[in-house]
Specification:
alpha/beta, Rossmann fold, two-stranded antiparallel sheet, 9 helices, binds adenosine-5'-diphosphate
Length: 290
């Protein structure tokens, strides 16, 4: 994804918004789709931006986002999380991150860092109390997320994970349009109408020209800690058929894991010790040409 900065257009005149821009650029003349992409802070340097999406809340999008950032961090990459799930922000809690957000005095905002150095920004870090509900309308939510991208100083980040607002409505669409995602990971759970969720997310990604890195099935089964038997709590999974239909890869089948949930509740997700998302991490690593 690129900001619309074709050579014909004087960079200084372009406002990156064709509705207000006076620059006479080629994309405007040709009637091409206008770009709503926002520029990151001038001190930001982010190599890959990965959106983690889901059809609805509660399927494990945040837990997958958290685990991916931990895995990439363990592999020696600098990882960061932009928590765009403004009405259900759970990222700082999973990492036990609290504290005052500070700025550089010139409009730039510094993200907070977890114990192992994963940087993050979330509306929860800005609220006086994490139980305060965010009762904002869509445009305010979308504006906040945009600011997390444009005003936060994300310097030297190899992988930024964006915990996207759930669904395919107005708010996720605005986020999709404003942040230049390099790929998305679709998280589903077997209780959902998986094929419909994937089809919707796929269409949204296609509209925006963003590649789908793969699918993650969460809460796929439960493994009995006593006998080791696996129970499919929500019936047979159809994720593989759906993935085949769309030509996507299934990156993980994550079980219901009470220990993982408990680590998140205690703010200790960085202590996780599972290999559920290793294949996804390999795929992300390959995006950096490694
Ligand atoms: P979302 O971001 O999609 O709204 P979350 O990641 O916040 O969903 O997960 C919702 C709840 O379910 C959280 O309490 C989380 O700890 C729990 N959860 C998610 N996935 C699992 C899992 N595989 N095993 C156990 N608990 C899980």
């Amino acid at each position: 994804m690129i900001y619309d900065d074709s050579a014909e257009k004087p960079q200084s005149e372009c406002t990156h918004d064709c509705s207000s821009c006076t620059a006479n650029c080629s994309s405007k003349e040709k009637g091409e789709k206008k770009s709503f992409l926002e520029k990151p802070h001038e001190l930001s340097n982010i190599k890959k931006v990965i959106g983690v999406v889901s059809g609805k809340g509660g399927v494990g999008k945040s837990i997958v986002t958290s685990m991916l950032s931990v895995l990439m961090n363990r592999r020696g990459y600098t990882s960061a999380i932009l928590d765009a799930d403004v009405t259900g922000p759970s990222i700082p809690k999973a990492f036990g991150v609290k504290g005052e957000v500070t700025g550089d005095g010139a409009g730039g905002i510094f993200p907070l860092a977890s114990k192992t150095g994963i940087r993050m920004m979330s509306v929860n870090l800005l609220l006086p109390d994490e139980t305060t509900p965010v009762v904002w309308r869509g445009p305010v939510i979308a504006g906040t997320v945009k600011q997390f991208w444009t005003d936060v100083i994300w310097d030297d980040v190899d992988f930024m994970f964006v915990d996207m607002p759930p669904g395919t409505g107005d708010v996720p669409l605005t986020v999709f349009q404003s942040i230049p995602l390099d790929g998305i990971i679709i998280v589903t759970s077997p209780q959902e109408l998986v094929s419909m969720i994937v089809a919707k997310a796929a269409k949204m990604a296609q509209m925006m020209n963003i590649p789908v890195v793969g699918l993650v099935e969460n809460m796929a089964y439960f493994k009995c800690p006593d006998c080791g038997r696996e129970y499919k709590l929500y019936g047979e999974s159809h994720i593989s058929e759906v993935a085949d239909t769309f030509g996507y890869e299934v990156l993980a089948h994550i079980p219901v894991d009470p220990r993982l949930a408990s680590l998140c509740d205690k703010g200790m997700v960085e202590m996780m010790d599972n290999d559920y998302l290793d294949k996804a991490a390999d795929k992300l690593e390959a995006m950096l040409g490694k």
